[in-house]
Amino acid sequence: MLGGIDISILGVVLAVVTGFGSYILGRRMREKRQGKRRAKDRAAAQANETRQVRRARERREQEGK
């Protein structure tokens, strides 16, 4: 007993599992959100490129494939 509160082993295990699940879910959601933000930033940067810069980038991307 801790201050009149009875903590069972099952309760502790349930709390740990729930906390771990919440951590994993939060990480995945954060990665997804960051990926979308990176794609949006990349699209915005490409929209501001000059024709010469755009063509040079496209050539580099083709060489990499």
Any chance you could write out the topology, listing elements then pairs?
Elements: H1 9-47, H2 51-64
Explain how this protein is built.
With 65 residues, the chain is mainly alpha-helical. It has one domain (9-64). 82% of the residues lie in helices and 0% in strands. It is built from two helices and no strands. The protein has helices spanning 9-47, 51-64. It is rod-shaped. Residues 30-40 have a biased composition (Basic residues). Residues 30-65 are annotated as: Disordered. Keywords: Membrane, Transmembrane, Transmembrane helix. The chain crosses the membrane at residues 6-26.
Largest sheet: none
Choose one word for the global shape.
rod-shaped
Structural class, please? mainly alpha
Report low-confidence residues grouped into runs of 5 or more.
none
Number of H- or I-type helical stretches: 2
